[in-house]
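Repro:
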Amino acid sequence: MMDKDTASTLAAYRRELAELHTKIRAVQAAAGPEEVQDYGFATGDGPVRLSALFGARDDLIVIHNMGVGCAYCTLWADGFNGVYHHLASRAAFVVSSPDAPAVQARFAAGRGWRFPMVSHAGSSFAEDMGYRAENGGWLPGVSVFRREQGRIVRVSNARFSPGDDFCILWHVFDLLPGGAAGWKPQLNQA
């Protein structure tokens, strides 16, 4: 059983985290939007433009996924799949990866993913958004776009990394003795 002092200290740290998130949102809201071009993507139904991904929404969340070979990206996508209907009730949501649409469709079906996917292969989208690694590979993260006065602007973005705020798993593991204890996701986690 946790002693009172430890519980009080943990509660104070959690309040500090909540306050820090409030500060992050304020800085993000104050940042000027970055106009972007109307990028083209490939889907199983043919080409689609960034502007079309908004559907009837003014806001669009695009997850930058490294593709089917990345266990961490799969972990994040599994988590987004679980809350997809909540996300889609607030903004349009899509996962973008370098994989061909047929590869995306097979992998998504095998995992039960419900969200739409697009392929950025052959475009400069992921690189222009800052999700290209120095070694030429891809980086995971999220970009949020808004339609404003006939333009598309990126209003925020964040990189993903193990332990980040974009996957609840790490925070639940933090409650275990030893935390994640070196755990790493596998593509076929048992």
